[in-house]
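User: I'm putting together notes for a lab meeting next week and I want to include a structural view of one of the chains we've been expressing. I don't have a solved structure, so I'd like a prediction I can at least talk through. The sequence is below, exactly as it appears in our construct file.
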Amino acid sequence: MPIPRDEPLLAELWSRFKTGDEKAFDQLAELRYRLLFNYATRFTKNRDFIKDCIQDLFLELWERRAHLTDTPYVTIYLIKSLRNNLLRQLRQEKALGETDEWDQETFADETTIEQELIAAELLSEQAQTIRRAIEQLPARQQEVIFLKFYEGLSNEEISQVMDIERQTVANFIYRALNQMKHLLPLLPFILLFCLNVA
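Assistant: Thanks for the context. Below is the predicted structure for the 198-residue chain, given as structure tokens.
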């Protein structure tokens, strides 16, 4: 699963929106809204909160458009920006005692990353086994696996999104697969797939 094929189009829309092109801005938001929403569900199951965070992100981008730099990787920029906003707001709410649903060690959403992986790479009867294995992973390993297999990002791109070293990404993937080994008879297949797309 490579980086989205429409990335060059997004880069063009990004440049146009920076000059005040509202249509380009609207198209950009439309093309990446679903991806951003799916990514945010790794942190919270509150759909209204996610929608507000995404809306705030695009409002901030519009207000700061004249000061933004060009980027050939708009998807990574958007994911990273949303991640920072989500974490900041969730920490603020937790500090104020307004939410107790978010935990650094777990993801609350019911949607699991292996659904996409199974559809593309594994037999459907393995779904429950994979679900249980992934749910046992620490939060940051789950996030790396989500970005790797669900969003199709490379290790380098994941390191940019999460602000960690590329080797740390590889370590997280290795540890996740190693931890899942005893539950997954098809782990060697998954590992081969992972190495092929690294």
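A couple of points you could mention at the meeting. Confidence is low (pLDDT under 50) at residues 99-125, 190-198. The radius of gyration is 17 Å.

User: Perfect, that's what I needed.
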